């Protein structure tokens, strides 16, 4: 099979047709609004530093000249302002781990069939909705491909059994 082509019958990821261009534009505009409001909510002098840098395109030396402060102070204000902004956005959006219910993995080699998409997420990519698998399934697949039994049990020096992985089921689509 030529490279870059999906295997016959493979599920191919396609854009969600229910999300229109207008919807994408409105979502992007809403993100801009949230960001601008978060910047405006920063206390001074951090708000000014962030506005000068990201809304006017000034570097730390130019900000320092306009504010009558040293470049070191301008950089410090900018860094602290960005830290405060990041904290607020993380707090308001559920943190940076808000996509922790979905993952993407590229898997190749050891005779793995190419051109596949296994599973799916919701339209925004926030959570898995089809063929929900775990990191243990991925690890089991790697072990299987390497000829290691993922259901293997090891024993500690005091005789306690320890499983190689908690779910020894490999991903069948990647093992054929």
In short:
The chain is mainly α and 176 residues long. It has 6 helices and 4 strands. It has 2 domains: 73 residues, Winged helix-like DNA-binding domain superfamily/Winged helix DNA-binding domain (Arc Repressor Mutant, subunit A); 56 residues, no CATH class.
Architecture overview:
- This protein is mostly helical.
- The protein has 2 domains: 21-93, Winged helix-like DNA-binding domain superfamily/Winged helix DNA-binding domain (Arc Repressor Mutant, subunit A, Orthogonal Bundle), CATH 1.10.10.10; 120-175, no CATH class.
- It contains 6 helices and 4 strands, in the order ααααββαββα.
- A hairpin with a 6-residue loop joins β1 (120-121) and β2.
- α2 packs across α4 (71-93) and α3 packs across α4 (71-93).
């Amino acid at each position: 099979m030529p490279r870059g082509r999906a295997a016959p019958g493979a599920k191919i990821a396609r854009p969600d047709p229910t999300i229109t261009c207008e919807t994408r534009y409105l979502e992007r505009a809403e993100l801009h609004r949230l960001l601008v409001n978060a910047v405006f909510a920063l206390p001074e002098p951090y708000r000014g530093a962030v506005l000068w840098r990201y809304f006017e395109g000034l570097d730390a030396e130019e900000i320092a000249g306009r504010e009558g402060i040293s470049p070191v102070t301008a950089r410090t204000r900018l860094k602290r302002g960005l830290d405060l902004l990041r904290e607020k956005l993380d707090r308001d959006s559920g943190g940076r781990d808000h996509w922790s219910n979905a993952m993407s993995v590229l898997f190749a080699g050891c005779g793995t069939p190419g051109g596949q998409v296994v599973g799916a997420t919701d339209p925004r990519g926030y959570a898995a909705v089809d063929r929900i698998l775990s990191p243990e399934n991925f690890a089991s697949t790697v072990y299987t491909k390497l000829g290691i039994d993922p259901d293997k049990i090891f024993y500690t020096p005091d005789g306690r059994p320890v499983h190689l992985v908690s779910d020894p089921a490999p991903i069948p689509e990647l093992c054929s």
